[in-house]
Amino acid sequence: MPSTDPGQQPQHYQIRIRGHLGESFRAAFPTLELRTEGHDTLLSGPLADQAALYGVLADIEALGLELVELRPSGAGADVGEGFRSDQEP
To answer: What's the N-to-C CA distance of the chain in angstroms?
Structure first.
């Protein structure tokens, strides 16, 4: 559920996508920093709330991109709570 606390700070995320994104795909994520790492693209930056995160994840799915990893980052993030698609549930 999205936060209703107007004073809440945005959470920073790192989202790893399989492959290198071309300019048309990069335009789909204007508020996030994109960089390539190995064979993947890393999207990173603040997202206002869970609704914003779900919106980015929906865009990734709609574009047919493969989500590799989702990890909160920055201050207050528990790096042990990341998700990798190659891990067993």
So the answer is: 23
